[in-house]
Design brief:
Helix 1 packs across helix 9, helix 3 runs antiparallel to helix 4 and helix 4 packs antiparallel against helix 5. A hairpin with a 2-residue loop joins strand 14 and strand 15. The chain is built from ten helices and 30 strands. The strands form four sheets. Strands 1, 2, 3, 4, 5, 6, 7, 8, 9 and 30 form a ten-stranded mixed beta sheet that branches. It has a ten-stranded antiparallel beta sheet with strand order 11-10-29-28-16-26-18-19-20-21, with no helix packed on it. A five-stranded mixed beta sheet has the order 13-12-14-15-27, with no helix packed on it. The chain folds into three domains: 191 residues, Nucleotide cyclase, GGDEF domain (Alpha-Beta Plaits, 2-Layer Sandwich); 89 residues, Tumour Suppressor Smad4, CATH 2.60.200; 109 residues, Tumour Suppressor Smad4.
């Protein structure tokens, strides 16, 4: 019996229905899904304490929810400091997102430092399974992935929403390039809604970006800068031919004193202004997170000194999405957490993500590692949306890293770990470009 068949059997047995397909199909229709995520909330909690932090999140979510309702949408759920909303009118979803950004900006006007909060927003239009109190299916999955590609103060929309809006001149929208869904065969176009009148948002810095728009990156020349803490001059590595091989003794750039590096270790390349890293053979290459990263089963992550493997029941998540079943419900049916991280130390200890979000830190987290001096008090979080789990650094000192298993895009600011070398991705500024629709 395959994993999908096993999960289907459990769902059918627990619900007492042999085939719910016809019933569920009646609930599928086009709808627009919007996700928001607060940035700066971790620093706020650290600075002002839990009580003040909870009040701040509640106040911000209330402002965002009111914007949703004013534009005819409904809030499906709040997930910590995130909001998921649904709209029947796709144009009103975009209008609501602009109002949200304007409201948060106005609220920040007289604030400084850790008092300031920003949001990133992602919106998608498509077919979903619409229940009375929730929405499931691919429309939710894509919306969460679009939001994960956004930078703070940015509104990103999918290609399907862009196409639905193409006869409108209500918004200013610019193309950003392609981003990955479940693999290179599923690359999709991504667009930014320009909501400011007095300037641009920061360029998108997402691990899911594959090929940025050439016109926006014509003068961008990414390079690697060695990260040092001893005050000595740092080396810079540029790739005039588009790619370079790095290793201990072989390649365009060598590190003969680094015994932790293989003879040929990694290939770095630049394509249309986007940098990529690819391990050579079985070489170990890590990269740090500068935004959310969508986890897949078998991914290896490094938090402080801890190294974990992410394990997920993908068949259960897919079936839950198709049948409109929540993660808590399906975990209970399976009598096992749908997702967890497993220590790669000898003890192979398991850390569950059963509640849909788990945090990792030295003193303040779902999973605490009090003796790990390399881990910040609040270091990283793993959370669930749609069929996906994401990992995100929460303002740690030493960063959160993921192992590159294949050719992987690197956004500006990411640090690549090769042997004992730490190399930061540095880029120039993108030229201005946008268009109205």
């Amino acid at each position: 019996m395959t994993p999908n068949e096993d999960v289907t059997r459990i769902l059918n047995r627990s619900t007492g229905q042999i085939d719910r397909k016809a019933e569920l199909e009646k609930l599928r229709r086009n709808i627009t899904i919007l996700f928001t995520d607060l940035k700066g909330s971790t620093a706020y909690f650290e600075k002002f304490g839990d009580a003040a932090g909870l009040l701040m999140v509640h106040r911000c979510n209330t402002m965002l929810s009111e914007a949703v309702e004013r534009h005819g949408g409904r809030v499906i759920k709040t997930i910590g400091d995130a909001v998921m909303a649904a709209f029947e009118d796709h144009a009103e979803a975009v209008a609501a997102s602009i109002e949200m950004q304007e409201a948060i900006t106005a609220d920040n006007k007289d604030k400084t430092g850790a008092q300031k909060i920003s949001i990133r927003i992602g919106i998608n239009y498509g077919l979903g399974l619409v229940k009375s109190n929730d929405v499931f299916g691919d429309v939710v999955n894509v919306a969460s992935r679009v939001e994960s590609a956004a930078a703070p103060e940015q509104i990103l929309i999918s290609d399907t929403l862009y196409n639905a809006l193409e006869r409108s001149d209500r918004f200013r929208i610019r193309p950003l390039g392609k981003f990955a869904l479940k693999g290179k065969a599923d690359e999709r176009d991504l667009f930014e809604v320009r909501w400011r009148e007095d300037g641009e948002a920061e360029p998108v810095a997402a691990h899911s970006m594959i090929v940025p728009v050439p016109d926006l990156n014509a003068r961008v020349k990414p390079k690697l800068v060695q990260v040092r803490n001893d005050g000595q001059t740092r080396r810079e590595f540029e790739f005039p031919t588009g790619s370079a091989l790095m290793g201990r003794t072989q390649g365009d750039f060598t590190f003969p004193q680094d015994n932790a590096m293989q003879a040929s270790h990694a290939r770095l390349s630049v394509e249309s202004g986007q940098m990529f890293v690819e391990p050579v053979g079985d070489a170990v290459v890590f990269f740090s997170l500068v935004g959310p990263y969508r986890l897949q089963g078998g991914d290896v992550i490094k938090i402080g000194k801890q190294i974990f493997e992410f394990q997920v029941n993908a068949a259960a998540l897919e079936m839950a999405s198709l049948t409109g079943t929540g993660i808590r419900e399906i975990s209970a049916m399976l009598q096992h957490s749908v997702a967890e991280v497993v220590s790669m130390e000898a003890d192979q200890k398991h850390y569950s993500v059963l509640e849909g979000q788990a945090t990792f830190g030295r003193t303040k987290a779902t999973h605490v590692f009090s003796t790990d001096s390399a881990m910040s008090r609040s270091h990283a979080k793993i959370y669930h949306r749609g069929e996906d789990f994401f990992i995100e650094d929460t303002g740690s000192t030493n960063g959160t890293f993921v192992m590159a298993k294949e050719k992987t895009p690197l956004p500006e600011g990411a640090i690549v770990s090769l042997g004992n070398q730490l190399l930061r991705v540095s880029r120039g500024q993108e030229p201005k470009a946008d268009r109205a629709i």
